[in-house]
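Sequence in, structure out.
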Amino acid sequence: MYAVIKTGGKQYKVAAGEKIKVEQITADVGQEIVIDQVLAVGNGAELKVGAPLVDGASVQATVVSHGRHDKVRIFKMRRRKHYQKRQGHRQNYTELLISAVVA
């Protein structure tokens, strides 16, 4: 059984036992959280799609860790104008272990 969830403005396809990295969630390491924004639930060939959310569906997950992604380097340049700008960014994330998909 799998589900499509929405968190942090993004959508993720998850199943029980998977680890995913999502936008940072304010929760402690080891804490059990419930994600109730489930857009679709599938089991084999059947698929139940919500409009926009599936009623009564949720995903239970455990917070494994918090961290930061690799640095993304931004470089802007205008040719022949003596303009160069360098910038970097590291996005925070929360790693979740999906324990159950409840339909």
